[in-house]
C-alpha cells in the first residue's frame, strides 16, 4: 500500500495565512507594560520648569519657593550639572538650559518630588529672570548675514563621527549638495524647450502617537544605571547616556518596554538625561511622564521647509535638467537628527522616481528659535514629494500632456540612476503607474466641481547591521532573543513566522523575547523601514544553522546566532526602492473652499508579504496618516510659540475622515529582503497631500503651494 504524505507548504504559501501578533494578547488585555506603567520602590517623580521666551540669556533662577513644597527632594539647574549636551549625532541640546534658552518649552530646571503633583507644583514656582535676545523663526531668515546667532560655540559640541565639517554660516545645522551630469546647468536651462520654476512651503507637524514619552532612571548601589524608555534605538540611547554622563556604556542598561506608537519620533530622547542627574542626586529612582503640552512644544516635530524646484524639459516633456533648493527649519537644536549631515532623511530629498540626467540639489537645515525638528514618518519625503508632484502636474498642464503620461515618459528604468545618483535594483515605477491608469479608468472625465489628482513616490528599504540568538531545545521548542524594539510594526511576529515556516515548528512552540542592552545582541533600532529587511535576513541566517538539528533525537540545547549586514548602496549593490502611485477623487465647494475626499486608489509595489494583516495595516494605515497630514495637521508657530498644545486643537484623522480606499499590489522584482520582501511602513503617506492638491486644482482651478489643504487655503486660492 502506498501512502502519499501531504505536501508541506512552502514558506510563501504559509505566509498567505494571517497570524495573530505575538504581543497582541498582552496589548489588548492590558498586560503589556509601557514605560509609563513602570514603577520602582521609593520612586520619585520629575517635573520641569520650561522657558517662556524663545531666545534669552538666563540672568537668575530662584528655586526658594519651589524648595518649600512638601515632598520636594531635589531641584537642579544647568548651573548645577554643568554644560551637558545630548544628541543622536550632534550633541548640542543641553540637558538643562545652560546660560541661555533657545526655544519656548526648553527645560530650564528639573524637580524630583515624592508625588507627580508636588513636582509639578514646585516646577511652576521656579522663577526665572531672562534677558531677552533677538530671535529668528524661519529657516531662510536664519541664514541671512545679519540674523541673530543661536549657537556661538557650536564648534565645541561633540560630533559622533569625529570632527564636524565647517559651516559657512553659524546658524547652519547641516548642508548637502548633490551634483549629477553636467557641472554647469545654466546652458542646459537656456537650451531647454521650457523651464518651470515653482516655490512651496510645508508645515511643522507632530507624530501623533498615543503614548506620550516617559522614562524612569535608576542608579543601583553598584553604579549600574538602569533606563526604562520608549526609545526605539536602545543601543544608541545607551551610547548617548554614556557620552553625556561619563558612565561607561557597559554600566548602562536600557531595559525593554513596549512602545505605544513612534512614527519616527521616538528615536530621540529628552528627559532621560535629566532624570539620571536627579536619580544620582537623590539616590532614588526617578520617573518622568510628559503631558501633550510637553510633547507638542518640547520634543521633536517634522521639519518645516521652504522649497524651490526648477526644471528644464524638451518639447515632449522629458526632464533634461533640474535645480532643487531646500531650506529646512531645524529648530533650536540639531540633536534630533541621527545622520552626520544633520538634515532630515538620508539625502534630504525624497528619492524622486524619475530619470533626470543633469541635477544640482542644494539642501540646508537651519537653527531657529523654534521647537527642534526631527524625523517623522518618511522624513524629507513628505515635504519634497509635495513640491515635486505638484511641479510635475503643472509642467504637464502647461505642455498639454496628460499628467500620468508625463510621469510615464520620465519614470526611472533599469540602468538609470535616481535624482541624486542612487542605484536602484529593478525599479518597478512604470508598472505601478500603468496599473494605476488601468485600475482607475483614468481617462473618464469628472463632473463639475470634482477632480482626480495623481502623485507618484518611491522610497528605499533601509539597511543596517543586526543579529539575534536562537536556542533549540530537545523538544524542538525555540527561544529567540533579539534587540530590535517593536514600535508597532510587528517585528516579533515576522521573526516567528520565518522560523515556523522554515523549520516546520508550530508558532506556539516559538518564544520571542526582546532583551535589554546588556543581554541582547547589538541592533541599530527600529526605523528607516529596515526591520523586516535586516532582522528577517538575520533570522534566516540563524535558521540555516539550526535546520540540521530539528526533529533529531538529542539531549542538549543548541544555541546559534544569526547576523546580517545590509549596509551597501553602490553600483555593485543597488538598493531596494519601492514605488507607489496615488489617485484621489475630491469634491470642492467653490463657495467655501471645503474639500471632500471621495475615494482613493493606491497602486503599490510589494514583494512577498510575510504577514498580510500587518502589511495591510502599514499600507492602509500609512495612507490614513497621510490624510491627516494633508487635511488637518499643522503646528502653527507665532513668534516661537505654538498655537496648538493638545490633541483637541491639533487634529488627527479619525475613521470618519477615511474615504473608500482600494489598494492594488504590483509584484516587485528581486530584492534584498527575506524572500525578496520590501518595505511598507513609509511608502503610503507621502503621496497623499500632493495627490489631493492636484485633485483640487483639477476640480476648481485652485493652485495650492502648501498644506494642510484647508477650506480657508482653497478659498484664498480661488479668490486671490
Q: Can you give a write-up of this model?
A:
- This protein is α+β, with helices and mostly antiparallel strands and 720 residues long.
- Among the domains are: 11-32 and 464-565, Aldehyde oxidase/xanthine dehydrogenase, molybdopterin binding domain (Aldehyde Oxidoreductase, domain 4), CATH 3.30.365; 35-134 and 207-298, Aldehyde Oxidoreductase, domain 3, CATH 3.90.1170.50; 440-458 and 576-720, Aldehyde oxidase/xanthine dehydrogenase, molybdopterin binding domain (Aldehyde Oxidoreductase, domain 4, 2-Layer Sandwich), CATH 3.30.365.10.
- It is 25% helix and 26% strand.
- The protein contains 18 helices and 31 strands.
- A seven-stranded mixed β-sheet has the order 3-8-1-16-13-14-15. A five-stranded mixed β-sheet has the order 11-20-19-18-12. A four-stranded mixed β-sheet has the order 22-27-28-31.
- A hairpin with a 5-residue loop joins strand 23 and strand 24 (478-482).
- The longest helix is centred in the last third of the chain and has 20 residues, at 612-631.
Task: Supply the key terms.
Aldehyde Oxidoreductase, domain 4, Aldehyde Oxidoreductase, domain 3, 720 residues, alpha+beta, single chain, 7-stranded mixed β-sheet
Cα(first) to Cα(last) distance is: 86 Å
CATH architecture of the domain at 35-134 and 207-298: Alpha-Beta Complex
**What is the average of the pLDDT values?**
94
Write down the Rg: 26 Å
Q: Classify the secondary structure makeup into a structural class.
A: alpha+beta
Looking at CATH, the homologous superfamily of the domain at 35-134 and 207-298 is Aldehyde oxidase/xanthine dehydrogenase, a/b hammerhead
Amino acid at each position: 500500500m502506498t501512502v502519499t504524505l501531504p505536501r508541506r507548504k512552502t514558506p510563501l504559501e504559509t505566509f498567505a495565512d494571517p497570524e495573530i501578533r505575538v504581543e497582541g494578547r498582552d496589548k489588548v488585555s492590558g498586560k503589556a507594560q509601557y514605560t509609563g506603567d513602570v514603577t520602582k520602590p521609593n520612586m520619585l517623580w520629575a517635573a520641569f520648569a520650561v522657558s517662556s521666551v524663545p531666545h534669552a540669556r538666563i540672568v537668575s533662577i530662584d528655586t526658594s519657593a519651589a524648595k518649600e513644597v512638601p515632598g520636594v527632594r531635589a531641584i537642579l539647574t544647568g548651573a548645577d550639572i554643568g554644560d551637558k549636551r545630548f544628541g543622536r549625532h550632534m550633541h548640542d541640546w543641553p540637558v538643562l538650559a545652560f546660560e541661555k534658552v533657545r526655544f519656548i518649552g526648553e527645560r530650564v530646571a528639573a524637580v524630583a518630588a515624592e508625588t507627580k503633583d508636588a513636582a509639578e507644583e514646585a516646577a511652576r514656582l521656579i522663577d526665572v529672570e531672562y534677558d531677552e535676545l533677538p530671535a529668528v523663526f524661519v529657516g531662510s531668515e536664519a541664514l541671512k548675514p545679519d540674523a541673530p546667532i543661536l549657537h556661538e560655540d557650536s564648534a565645541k559640541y561633540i560630533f559622533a563621527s569625529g570632527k564636524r565639517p565647517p559651516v559657512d554660516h553659524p546658524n547652519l545645522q547641516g548642508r548637502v549638495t548633490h551634483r549629477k551630469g553636467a557641472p554647469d546647468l545654466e546652458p542646459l536651462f537656456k537650451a531647454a524647450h521650457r523651464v518651470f520654476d515653482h516655490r512651496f512651503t510645508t508645515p511643522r507637524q507632530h507624530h501623533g502617537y498615543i503614548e506620550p514619552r516617559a522614562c524612569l532612571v535608576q542608579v543601583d548601589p553598584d553604579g549600574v544605571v538602569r533606563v526604562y524608555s520608549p526609545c526605539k534605538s536602545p543601543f544608541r540611547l545607551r551610547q548617548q547616556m554614556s557620552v553625556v554622563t561619563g558612565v561607561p556604556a557597559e554600566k548602562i542598561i536600557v531595559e525593554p518596554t513596549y512602545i505605544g506608537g513612534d512614527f519616527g519620533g521616538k528615536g530621540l530622547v529628552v528627559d532621560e538625561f535629566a532624570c539620571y542627574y536627579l536619580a544620582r542626586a537623590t539616590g532614588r529612582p526617578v520617573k518622568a511622564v510628559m503631558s501633550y503640552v510637553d510633547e507638542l512644544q518640547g520634543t521633536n516635530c517634522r521639519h518645516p521647509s521652504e522649497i524651490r524646484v526648477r526644471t528644464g524639459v524638451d518639447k515632449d516633456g522629458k526632464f533634461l535638467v533640474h535645480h532643487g533648493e531646500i531650506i529646512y527649519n531645524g529648530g533650536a537644536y540639531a540633536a534630533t537628527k541621527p545622520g552626520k549631515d544633520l538634515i532630515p532623511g538620508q539625502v534630504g530629498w525624497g528619492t524622486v522616481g524619475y530619470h533626470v540626467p543633469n541635477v544640482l540639489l542644494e539642501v540646508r537645515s537651519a537653527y531657529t528659535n523654534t521647537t527642534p525638528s526631527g524625523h517623522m514618518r518618511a522624513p524629507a519625503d513628505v515635504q519634497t514629494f509635495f513640491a515635486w508632484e505638484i511641479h510635475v502636474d503643472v509642467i504637464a498642464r502647461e505642455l498639454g500632456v496628460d499628467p500620468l503620461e508625463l510621469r510615464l515618459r520620465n519614470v526611472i528604468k533599469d540602468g538609470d540612476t535616481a535624482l541624486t545618483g542612487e542605484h536602484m535594483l529593478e525599479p518597478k515605477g512604470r508598472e505601478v503607474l500603468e496599473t494605476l491608469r488601468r485600475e482607475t479608468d483614468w481617462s473618464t472625465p469628472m463632473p463639475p466641481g470634482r477632480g482626480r489628482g495623481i502623485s507618484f513616490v518611491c522610497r528605499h528599504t533601509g539597511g543596517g547591521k543586526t543579529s539575534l540568538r536562537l536556542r533549540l531545545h530537545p523538544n524542538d521548542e525555540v527561544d529567540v532573543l533579539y534587540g530590535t524594539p517593536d514600535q508597532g510594526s510587528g517585528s516579533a511576529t515576522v521573526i516567528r513566522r520565518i522560523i515556523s515556516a522554515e523549520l516546520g515548528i508550530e508558532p506556539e512552540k516559538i518564544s520571542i523575547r526582546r532583551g535589554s542592552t546588556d543581554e541582547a545582541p547589538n541592533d541599530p533600532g527600529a526605523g528607516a523601514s529596515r526591520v523586516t529587511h535586516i532582522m528577517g535576513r538575520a533570522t534566516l541566517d540563524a535558521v540555516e544553522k539550526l535546520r540540521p538539528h530539528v526533529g533529531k533525537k538529542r539531549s542538549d540545547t543548541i544555541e546559534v546566532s544569526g547576523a546580517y549586514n545590509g549596509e551597501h548602496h553602490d553600483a555593485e549593490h543597488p538598493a531596494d526602492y519601492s514605488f507607489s502611485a496615488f489617485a484621489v477623487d475630491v469634491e470642492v465647494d467653490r463657495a467655501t473652499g471645503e474639500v471632500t475626499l471621495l475615494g482613493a486608489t493606491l497602486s503599490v509595489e510589494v514583494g512577498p508579504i510575510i504577514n498580510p494583516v500587518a502589511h495591510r495595516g502599514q499600507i492602509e494605515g500609512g495612507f490614513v496618516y497621510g490624510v491627516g497630514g494633508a487635511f488637518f495637521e499643522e503646528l502653527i508657530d507665532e513668534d516661537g510659540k505654538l498655537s496648538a498644545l493638545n490633541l483637541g486643537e491639533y487634529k488627527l484623522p479619525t475613521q470618519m475622515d477615511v474615504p473608500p480606499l482600494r489598494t492594488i499590489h504590483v509584484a516587485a522584482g528581486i530584492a534584498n529582503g527575506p524572500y525578496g520582501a520590501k518595505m511598507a511602513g513609509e511608502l503610503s503617506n507621502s503621496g497623499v497631500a500632493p495627490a489631493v492638491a492636484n485633485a483640487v486644482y483639477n476640480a476648481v482651478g485652485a493652485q495650492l503651494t502648501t498644506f494642510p489643504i484647508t477650506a480657508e487655503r482653497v478659498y484664498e486660492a480661488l479668490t486671490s
